[in-house]
Amino acid sequence: MSIHRIHHDLYKGAKKLTDPGDAGTIRVTEDLQICEMVTTTGETRTLQNPTKPGILFTLRLLTDGGDATVTGANGLNVTGNTIAAFEDDGDLLHMISVTHTTGYRWEILVNTGAVSLS
Amino acid sequence: MTSAHRIHHDLYRGSKVLTDPGDGGTITAIQDLQICEMVSTGADTRTLAAPTKPGIRLVLRHLTDGGSITITAAEGLNTLLETEVVMSEAGDLLQLIAVTLVADSTYRWEILVNTASVVSSATPSHTPSHTPSPSSTVSHTPSHTSSPSHTPSHTSSPSHTPSSTPSST
Fold this sequence. Notes:
Number of domains of chain A: 1
Largest sheet of chain B: 5 strands, mixed
Structural class of chain B: mainly beta
Order of helices and strands of chain A: HEEEEEEEEE
CATH topology of chain A: Jelly Rolls
Largest interface: A-B, 59 and 61 residues
CATH architecture of chain A: Sandwich
Distance between the termini of chain B: 35 Å
Number of helices of chain B: 1
Low-confidence stretches of chain A: none
CATH class of chain A: Mainly Beta
Number of strands of chain A: 9
Strand content of chain A: 35-45%
Mean pLDDT of chain A: 95
Shape of chain B: globular
Number of helices of chain A: 1
Shape of chain A: globular
Number of strands of chain B: 9
CATH topology of the domain at 16-126 in chain B: Jelly Rolls
Radius of gyration of chain A: 14 Å
Helix content of chain A: under 10%
Low-confidence stretches of chain B: 125-169
Strand order of the largest sheet of chain A: 1-3-5-6-9
Mean pLDDT of chain B: 77
Largest sheet of chain A: 5 strands, mixed
Strand order of the largest sheet of chain B: 1-3-5-6-9
Oligomer: heterodimer
Strand content of chain B: 25-35%
Helix content of chain B: under 10%
């Protein structure tokens, strides 16, 4: 990979983090990925805490068969909300990992839909 | 070969510019993390080609305002599947990410950030595969008002010490 090709190679690289399905754990081990969830009823996911700061990750509800309730144990914002409820298809969170008092957590940069936090 | 130790340096040095195709031209993103800064000399148009996979990021910006630029993305630009944006002022900017429209076959752009007064019009070119959420934020909402992470809709119930402690720094 050269500096002249790096953005092209990034384009070609896999961006997709496969949805683990109901009750599964979303583990982000690569940068700049997107996970598009498909639900068939009210479902849950656990978003594993990141392991370093600065990782960018996008989480989206692709197909709404029921709400997807995603839990990030170390929090998702400065308020410390740990639960994000994706209620409609297209709901999207764009996040960056940041340092937390105990390790790292996700911070929501953009919330394009009606993802509610608690 | 880029090593893990050099990849961000190489990213910094790599070309970010997607050349403006000019009036009537098509913007086709074939690299990730690029920016297309458009110069208009009159009432211009651009077509934004649909992405070919999810996760690609692109920034569109109106660099020089010689007239409004109307950009059309046939597959839609938000959950309402609005297909047009008008950049009427210099500095108007959209940050976009590619998302799936129809699993494993069709993709579209989704607006992540709209820094200015870019407006979109409700002219979907086809029936969406899913019913768009009426509660979703439309693309003409300025980005600084679309970050509920600072204004959660529910009472917070953190499982750990809130990050307004040192973690938020």
